[in-house]
Amino acid sequence: MVEFKDLIPVFDAESQCGSPVIIAGPCSAESRAQTLRTAEELASAGIRYFRAGVWKPRTRPGSFEGVGAKALPWLAEVREKTDMTPMTEIASPAHLRNALRAGICTVWIGARTAANPFAVQEIADFISGLPRGEKDRMGVLVKNPVNPDLELWIGALQRLYRAGVRRLGAIHRGFSAYGNHLYRNVPEWRIPIELKRRIPSLPLICDPSHIGGRRDLIGKISQQALDMRFDGLIVESHCDPDCALSDSAQQVTPSELSTILLSLRSCPDSTAEDSLRVYREEIDIIDEGLVSLLSRRMEVARCIGGLKIREGVSVVQPGRYSMLMEHRVADGERLGLCPEFMRRILGVIHEESVRQQLSLRGNENEIAATEDN
Ligand code: PEP
Ligand code: MN
Predict the structure, then answer these.
(1) Rounded to the nearest 5 degrees, what angle is found at the Cα of 234, between the Cα atoms of 229 and 240?
(2) Among candidates 67, 80, 141, 57, which has minimal Cα distance to 105?
């Protein structure tokens, strides 16, 4: 894209030697001691960029909302003591003003803020008014909006670019979806991949902590990101994860982080094998999504089964089944799927729903009798 033609690297050293940038630190700066202890352990592990949330956007009121501006001097102290570059999340001009005053000039915009063009524009307008030198020093990473909307993500980056930010980057943290999934936020890898295709010079960082929501998924998601040629990772790390005040389940100790990082294969030069792996990983993720969807579908089928028992309704309703088949086959055709394939898949799914509903009645023998419906 013409617009992003003169970006300056946010991460100097790594972008020169081509190895992935690693940003790590706690979800939240909770106390001076926890912030400094975590930072020192991470610095000993060779990490050079430190993250810590000061203002925390929480889904529900009453959760820990960060300690606020009083944590900013702790981040400044991290730089003095460890030489790491500290960064934090900002969601308003007031946050940014406070961060800059404390000498924190690399920040990220969170997923909820990135979804709101008014909020991003207010931040951009504030940046426009800053003196040139301060603008040049600033680095801004924009997380993807919570909803899977590439144009909205690019729009947020454009607003900042037009305000004069040249040290820009993007963080992929996955997308919210209703219901239970393997991941806390579904990766939808094709969206960040398309972002990289459109703006190749924009550093793209993966946040496996917020995608997975569970510490045991961090290694796998990080490897997928590196295989897809992401430029780096941002990982939540806490000196005592089980006692963390936010996102405890997804944080790892600095030493666990080192083990994960050592286990990652660095990305070899591009070959056909490499492209194949990227596609296969995309297929694996799609299949995992299919499994979650099937499990949710069966859950709903069992609820319907319970209702039918209570209301004295029979398990198989041929009218409903043929309408469903007809509509889904037509939907599939619109998306390029062969009708015969759709009929077979839907037939098997329906058969399993019926089996589950019958088993609620303790009568699985009826399956055979209903198979023709
Ligand atoms: C975070 O990085 O701690 C955070 C709140 O992330 P997100 O905006 O991705 O939810
Ligand atoms: Mn977090």
Answers:
(1) 145
(2) 141
Residue of 210, 233, 238 to test ligand 1 pocket, by largest number of atoms within 8 Å of CB: 210
Which pLDDT value is given to residue 371?
A: 43
Q: Which residues line ligand 1 (CB under 6 A)?
A: 27, 53, 57, 89, 110-111, 143, 173, 210
d(CA 106, CA 48): 13
CA dihedral for 63, 102, 202, 92, sign (positive or negative) = positive
Distance from residue 95's CA to the centre of ligand 1 (Å): 15
Q: What is the mean pLDDT of each run of 10 residues along the chain (373 residues)?
A: 87 69 98 98 97 92 93 98 98 98 98 98 98 95 98 98 97 91 90 94 97 97 92 97 97 98 78 70 84 93 92 87 94 95 95 93 55 42
Task: Give the integer Cα–Cα distance in Å for 241 and 230.
Answer: 26
- Show Cβ contacts of residue 82 under 8 Å, excluding neighbours closer than 6 positions: 39, 40, 42, 43, 50
pLDDT for residue 363:
58
Distance CA 308, CA 310 (A): 5
| Tokens of residue 251, six digits | 């944080």
Q: Which atom of ligand 1 is nearest to the CA of 112?
A: 8
- In angstroms, the CA 339 to CA 362 distance is 34
CB atoms within 10 A of CB 83: 9
Cβ(55)–Cβ(104) below 8 Å: no
Is pTM, for the whole model, over 0.85? no
Q: Both tokens of residue 58? A: 């929480």
C-alpha span between 165 and 208 (Å, rounded): 26
